[in-house]
């Protein structure tokens, strides 16, 4: 409307002969510029008889206001070519255009500094122009120069400009503060803020906002202390509180930006209590304040508080904007994720979250936000978390033009449901709809490939082909990501590494990693995880050392993986005697080094690291070191307790484990399903049937009775502690036992020596359409071995791959050899060990030597002993066993010759 009126007035002025008037021309430039009509403005500018400095200024300002930085700078150069001398205002506009260019430019590493090279070159030329015209003495030009160098990543040059003036004005000081904050230099910004106070510079609301932002940077970089399970950044928090008091004293609480900056800072510091003091204070409660406060509650996982605050916002007459709805819906997601809330009628957290979310959905619809992409994406996430995939699909289908954010939210919803096939089908539809996927879209699709691995029922087809393996789909996605320019993005590379690792292609994993030009900690961690997943502990530890050599700072997750690698390495090593104790010495030394590094970096506050340190020492066969580590490390979380409990059990210390469980309860640490699983294992070791029943009662009270792991462990525990009648009764009480529970009951019958019932139970499992796994096969071989049923054992071994699709591993071959050895069928044993189908370990040769001793078979014993010596020439156990074989045959002379 304004543009139409302006055009009409312009037409009248031309008709009346005022078209050449310079003042009118400048006002027309201003009017067209404000209305966003650059073409008309440019026409007026070109038609002007004389283009004054004011005209050039208005034209440059119009281009800059509409985000046309390149055109602004081109016009500035044209002005110079026309021999028009700029004034301070024109140089400032050109410098501001340079700042905007710098913010859009991809940074480059120049002599260790992150720099915007192109923008810096333009900025330096403009700085030269300012100097030539003596404009750099102007405080506004000076501050704009500081801002330009800050945007280009050149803090030193910005400091030089700032230091070039003896008197630091508020404008220049704010510009320098802003430059520090823009480059993540929070400490320098706080020092300058103090300096400003020392020099008597009168700060304003903008100064306060920047100083508080600097405090947020300090909090982000500071290693937090953990108080009652919450991370608190102490130093940054104290500085933030001082700024809070300063803002209150100076009367800045009426400024919405100051309040929002303080809320954001407290969110970064993890101090919800301090943020809540602002609610009752004399603050300007506009929609920005309410939304920021809602965001803080959501960030802290306080979903219920967020919803209460949302209700209070409406009660105070503030209409929620779309971001308030987004935060309220995310509050529902937080309730669903925590799973602790209950409704007045005892409804579960998921039901409560879903009902409130649906009410918010209706409310958002009434207020015209139903088609907003961010509101819809939040609803998609909530519905998928609550298991309402139909609701999520309805929201998605209700969008007339879903963008990539909505597509990604729907993909995430299917991922949440574990439906990899639907993710890939939706990804294919996305391409058909001509939407351009972003890196997050590819990450979702690659995760879906991982889900298809091992899914025998997967029937995903592409371009008419029948069944395509997940690895082939993953490779196709990889090619597509490369074509779209996402191949080198760290997030995508990490997802590719995980996908190839899950699909079992370590050559592709290493290929993706080597192809990356630059590796960040995320890609290093992904490769570490891949090596550990494929039991390549040595490579994982070598890679961890390489991370240090490359100057990359490992994070907590990297250390967790390094400890896991160390624990796995320990499992492969032989025990040696150290200070009268049996330990895995090499692994202990590596573990000590990792632990010392964690202490230096302050990572021992992390619960996952604490639990992995304890677990690692346990795997190194040093119970003492595990106990010492547990006692000195913080154990506010259940994770270290579970690790110590598991370590006692792995060392056969059932009584200690049960005493430790009593200590855990006395400390009031919240238990988990895994805690109960460990206690049941301890009951199996000690035969404590009363404790087993107590734990069974606690499991039912906690609502964990449907857990497959706990159900199978209860069956096994009753089988170990009570009679087989109790064990069978426990099994029969489970509605739909899974393969682990069937394995547990079979195992109990095998351990009780009831070969017939164990085989009958397996038959029942088969008729119940439960697919046997490798553990089932191993149990059946063990049953046949203990019963001396050679034919049955061989039949079961052959049936593994033929009827059940199970590829035999070393444990299965070991079981078969044990079966044949017990039965005295030494010819078949030697054939099996000689034909190259299996590469026997020292454990297999040791077991075989024991069999030879039992059967007094000197000939085979000699051959087995030779094979064992090839693997481990100094294995004392082998020498003792072969001596006993010869002793049994009174062949000491032959032994000395051997």
UniProtKB/TrEMBL annotation:
- InterPro entries on file: PPR_At4g14850-like_plant, PPR_rpt, TPR-like_helical_dom_sf
Instruction: Give this protein's Gene Ontology molecular function annotations.
Output: RNA binding
Which keywords, in A-to-Z order, does the entry hold? Answer: Repeat
Task: Give me the Gene Ontology terms describing cellular component.
Answer: mitochondrion
Start and stop residues of the PPR repeats:
52-86, 169-203, 286-320, 403-437, 520-554, 637-671, 738-772
> Which Gene Ontology terms describe the biological processes this protein takes part in?
RNA modification; system development
Q: Which Pfam families match?
A: PPR, PPR_2
Q: Which domain of life is it from?
A: Eukaryota
Protein family: Belongs to the PPR family. PCMP-E subfamily.
PANTHER family in alphabetical order: PENTACOTRIPEPTIDE-REPEAT REGION OF PRORP DOMAIN-CONTAINING PROTEIN, PENTATRICOPEPTIDE REPEAT-CONTAINING PROTEIN
Instruction: State what protein this is by name.
Output: Pentatricopeptide repeat-containing protein
């Amino acid at each position: 409307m304004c543009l139409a009126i302006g055009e009409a007035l312009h037409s009248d002025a031309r008709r009346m002969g005022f078209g050449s008037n310079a003042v009118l021309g400048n006002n027309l430039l201003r009017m067209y510029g404000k209305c966003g009509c650059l073409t008309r403005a440019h026409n007026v500018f070109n038609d002007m008889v004389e283009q004054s400095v004011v005209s050039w200024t208005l034209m440059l300002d119009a281009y800059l206001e509409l985000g046309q930085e390149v055109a602004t700078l081109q016009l500035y150069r044209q002005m110079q070519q026309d021999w028009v001398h700029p004034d301070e205002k024109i140089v400032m506009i050109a410098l501001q255009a340079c700042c905007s260019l710098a913010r859009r430019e991809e940074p480059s590493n120049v002599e260790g500094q992150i720099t915007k090279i192109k923008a810096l070159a333009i900025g330096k030329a403009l700085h030269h122009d300012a100097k030539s015209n003596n404009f750099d003495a102007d405080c506004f030009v000076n501050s704009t120069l500081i801002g330009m160098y800050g945007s280009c990543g050149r803090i030193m040059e910005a400091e030089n400009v700032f230091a070039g003036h003896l008197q630091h004005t508020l404008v220049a000081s704010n510009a320098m503060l802003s430059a520090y904050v823009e480059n993540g230099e929070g400490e320098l910004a706080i020092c300058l803020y103090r300096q400003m106070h020392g020099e008597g510079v009168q700060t304003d609301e903008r100064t306060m906002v920047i100083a508080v932002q600097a405090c947020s940077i300090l909090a982000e970089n500071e290693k937090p202390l953990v108080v009652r399970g919450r991370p608190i950044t102490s130093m940054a928090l104290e500085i933030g509180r001082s700024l809070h008091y300063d803002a209150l004293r100076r009367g800045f609480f009426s400024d919405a930006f100051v309040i929002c900056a303080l809320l954001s800072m407290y969110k970064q510091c993890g101090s919800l209590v301090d943020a809540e003091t602002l609610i009752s204070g004399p603050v300007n409660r506009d929609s920005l304040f309410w939304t920021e406060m809602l965001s803080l509650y959501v960030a802290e996982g306080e979903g219920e508080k967020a919803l209460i605050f949302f209700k209070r916002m409406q009660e105070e007459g503030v209409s929620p904007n779309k971001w308030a709805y987004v935060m309220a819906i995310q509050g529902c997601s937080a309730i669903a994720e925590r799973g602790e809330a209950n409704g007045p009628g005892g409804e579960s957290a998921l039901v409560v979250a879903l009902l409130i979310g649906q009410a918010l959905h209706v409310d958002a619809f009434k207020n015209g936000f139903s088609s907003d992409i961010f509101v819809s994406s939040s609803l998609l996430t909530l519905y998928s978390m609550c298991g309402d995939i139909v609701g999520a699909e309805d929201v998605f289908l209700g969008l007339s033009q879903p963008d990539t954010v909505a597509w990604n939210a729907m993909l995430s919803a299917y991922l949440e449901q574990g439906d990899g096939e639907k993710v890939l089908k939706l990804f294919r539809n996305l391409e058909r709809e001509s939407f351009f996927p972003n890196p997050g879209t590819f990450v979702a699709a690659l995760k879906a490939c991982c889900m298809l691995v091992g899914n025998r029922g997967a029937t995903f087809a592409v371009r008419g082909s029948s069944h395509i393996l997940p690895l082939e789909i993953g490779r196709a996605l990889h090619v597509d990501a490369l074509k779209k320019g996402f191949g080198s993005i760290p997030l995508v590379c990490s997802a590719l590494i995980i996908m190839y690792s899950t699909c079992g292609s370590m050559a592709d994993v290493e290929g993706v990693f080597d192809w990356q030009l630059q590796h960040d900690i995320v890609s290093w961690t992904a490769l570490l995880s891949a090596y550990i997943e494929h039991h390549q502990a040595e490579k994982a530890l070598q890679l961890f050392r390489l991370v240090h050599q490359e100057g990359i700072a490992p994070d907590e997750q990297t250390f967790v993986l390094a400890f896991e690698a160390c624990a796995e390495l320990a499992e492969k090593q032989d025990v040696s005697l150290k200070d009268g104790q049996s330990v895995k010495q090499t692994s202990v030394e590596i573990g000590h080094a990792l632990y010392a590094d964690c202490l230096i970096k302050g990572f021992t506050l992390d619960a996952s690291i604490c639990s992995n340190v304890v677990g690692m020492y346990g795997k190194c066969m040093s119970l003492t070191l595990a106990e010492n580590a547990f006692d000195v490390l913080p154990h506010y979380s259940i994770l270290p307790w579970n690790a110590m409990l598991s370590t006692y059990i792995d060392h056969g210390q059932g009584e200690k484990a049960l005493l430790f469980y009593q200590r855990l309860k006395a400390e009031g640490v919240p238990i988990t399903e895994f805690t109960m699983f460990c206690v049941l294992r301890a009951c199996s070791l000690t035969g404590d049937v009363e404790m087993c029943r107590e734990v069974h009662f606690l499991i039912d009270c906690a609502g964990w009775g449907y857990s497959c792991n706990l159900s199978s462990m209860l069956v096994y525990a009753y089988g170990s502690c009570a009679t087989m009648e109790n064990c069978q009764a426990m099994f029969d009480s489970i509605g739909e036992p899974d393969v682990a529970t069937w394995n547990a009951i079979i195992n109990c019958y095998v351990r009780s020596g009831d070969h017939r019932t164990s085989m009958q139970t397996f038959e029942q499992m088969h008729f119940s359409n439960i697919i046997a796994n490798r553990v089932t096969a191993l149990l059946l071989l063990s049953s046949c071995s203990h019963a001396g049923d050679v034919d049955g054992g061989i039949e079961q071994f052959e049936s593994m791959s033929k009827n059940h699709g199970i590829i035999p591993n070393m444990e299965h071959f070991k079981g078969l050899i044990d079966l044949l050895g017990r039965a005295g069928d030494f010819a078949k044993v030697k054939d099996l060990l000689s034909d190259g189908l299996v590469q026997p370990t020292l454990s297999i040769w040791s077991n075989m030597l024991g069999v030879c001793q039992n059967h007094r078979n000197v000939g085979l014993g000699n051959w087995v002993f030779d094979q064992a010596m090839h693997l481990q020439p100094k294995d004392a156990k082998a020498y003792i066993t072969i001596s006993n074989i010869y002793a049994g045959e009174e062949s000491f002379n032959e032994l000395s010759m051997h």
